[in-house]
Amino acid sequence: MSAPSAQGHAHSPQAQLVAAADRTLAQHPNFGDSQRILAKVYARYRFGTELFAQRLPQAAALLQQVEAMPDADVRRIFFDPLVRLAAEDAFSELESGQLASPHRLEALLPQAIAALPAGLCESHMLQRWGLQSQEQHWMWSIVGSDDPFAAQLQAAFDRIFADNPANRGLLLNPDAGAQKKVQDSIALLSMLLPNSGPAALRHVGAIALLEAQLEGGIVLSAAGGDLTPSTVFVSLDQLGNPWDIAGCLLHEGLHMKLFDAARSVSLAKEPDATIQVPWRNVRWSIVRAIFAYHVYVHLSLFKAAALVADPRCFELYGDPLAYVSRAHAMSVVNNDTAHQYGRSIDRARYLGEMLEGEWSHLLSPGGFELIHWLRSALAPVDEAMFADAREAA
To answer: For the chain, which residues make up each domain, given as ranges?
Structure first.
């Protein structure tokens, strides 16, 4: 991939297949159309505020204001990591009958509304670093801050690593160079996958920089999960190039997208059932396997898009082979070709076959629909562009 070849022309058959798959992966009403998925998320938070208002006086005082807000403001409020965490806790407490005032959501909601048009935590950063795609994103800048909101974010981040003393994580403040690297990677992702790339990033609220190591190895990127929702963490030093940074942003954004979609569509009949994949020595839940397949299908398409990239991508962001990077399955720059499952396409094939076959009894109808849609979207690209990888395996 040292230079765009004839197959990389925008009108080549391979490029047209990639473009068709990219469109398909952004169109499914339950799993692909990010605007529709997010509309359900915003509706859930509006309805949640109505439910919370029955037990939380401050939520009741703000109910009409929240209900009348445009979606953009609802997003800025509820995609804030601390507000979203408090809101999800309130949902859980409501379900268990434990929701009561005073509740931290009552303190956070009026402050978040007052911070508009910025998000609450965004407005408390040491420096304001914004990013643009088809939604606004902001970058954490809290190291060295004595702000109470920064302290809460730092505490939430520290809890990610608290389970094992061998784990370690360090947050880094961005500078102008880091902001440019991330912004360039977002732009590259949008050039390569103009539909499914931005669709994944719409589900990301904030991006934070880190250096971290878990028991399984060095962390390249991570989604914030329950402790720091709406946030993606990336290690720019470990990734080192815009192609792989873009891939990691896609990867983590996809986790958040499917998490949002799964709020309204069940994926598994037995979510706690476990399976074994050949490239990990721990058993996965079937839900983790579904989420992994969702990512590997998109990353395989991302790799295919890089193979047929417009020459401008190479001019703007460099030749992928010019970058030094350690091999990993999700890399565009360097895969572990000696390993049977060293590429995203290898893992996508395995998971797709198993999820539609041996493990299919563990899926709900919605989960099976998701897997079949993903597999059908990737199949033409796989057949046309990765036949050599299949033969090598």
So the answer is: 1-31+265-393, 34-120, 127-259
